Amino acid sequence: MQPLPRADWALFLDIDGTLIEHADHPEGVEIPEYLPDLLTVLQTSLGGAVALVSGRSIDWMDHRLAPARLPAAGQHGAEIRLAPDAPSVPIPTPKWRKPLEQTLEREMAAWPGVYIEHKPLSLAVHYRAVPESGDEIMAKVVEASARIGGEVEFLKGRFVVELRQSGHDKGTAVDTLMGSAIFTGRKPVFLGDDVTDEDGFRAARAVGGLAIAVGPRPTTQADFRLATPEDVRKWLGDIPQALERVPS
Ligand SMILES: O=P(O)(O)OC[C@H]1O[C@H](O[C@H]2O[C@H](CO)[C@@H](O)[C@H](O)[C@H]2O)[C@H](O)[C@@H](O)[C@@H]1O
Ligand SMILES: [Mg+2]
């Protein structure tokens, strides 16, 4: 059973594992051809209140989801764009980023198959190719970061350790977006599949919104659940028509 869509919703959408299926490599993901159009139509039917909230960068979203262009939070809240035509506002580049990147490139060579994703304000160490070494890799990443110092936070996601500047997450992103003109006064509904989405769930529910978990990952915060990204796309795609039927 899914919630009945409401015209006063503000939708916050995670990308990987929610809007699109996972792939072996971050750049191997496939964007369904109809997805940009689906998002644009959805945006119009909700008065613009549809945001992407992802570990990906906003540049990546604009590029891969073009011509759709939405309000967005990228790199786990480290950059925010309050409206489609507004500039993205990034945090300053963390001091630890460059030295840590160099150290990790060196040390992760011990695990062939590990891929380090260099994002402008964060790093992601992907170990999908060697899942059995996840704990060891995590320990190494934490140790290297401690040596370099700085306010780094570690997030263990799906076969990935994300390194981001502390103080920003998907929850702070939802709070910031909810305080902006397009979203204010609406009911936040956050869709996500991974542990990093828990902050978004919490922020949405704290102001009377909903959390919709995607996939099988257990969470105590889900008000509803959709099984797959395909189900998410179908459900989102039906919202504009459903809203036309709902008396406002
Ligand atoms: O917050 P999200 O939109 O879910 O993004 C989270 C991270 O997603 C990407 O990594 C994950 O998806 C890859 C493609 O399916 C997969 O190969 C990898 O194992 C996953 O961890 C992306 O590469 C990261 O930058 C995002 O932070
Ligand atoms: Mg995800």
Automatic annotation (TrEMBL):
Pathway in which this enzyme or protein is active: Glycan biosynthesis; trehalose biosynthesis
Keywords assigned by UniProt?
A: Hydrolase, Magnesium, Metal-binding
User: Which EC numbers characterise this protein's activity in its record?
Assistant: 3.1.3.12
Q: Which cofactor does it need?
A: Mg(2+)
Q: Does the keyword Metal-binding apply?
A: yes
Biological function: Removes the phosphate from trehalose 6-phosphate to produce free trehalose.
Q: Which organism is it from?
A: Ancylobacter mangrovi
Example GO BP: trehalose biosynthetic process
Reaction it catalyzes: alpha,alpha-trehalose 6-phosphate + H2O = alpha,alpha-trehalose + phosphate
Q: Which Gene3D superfamilies match?
A: HAD superfamily/HAD-like, Trehalose-6-phosphate phosphatase related protein, domain 2
The UniProt similarity line reads: Belongs to the trehalose phosphatase family.
GO MF annotation list = metal ion binding; trehalose-phosphatase activity
Q: What is this protein called?
A: Trehalose 6-phosphate phosphatase
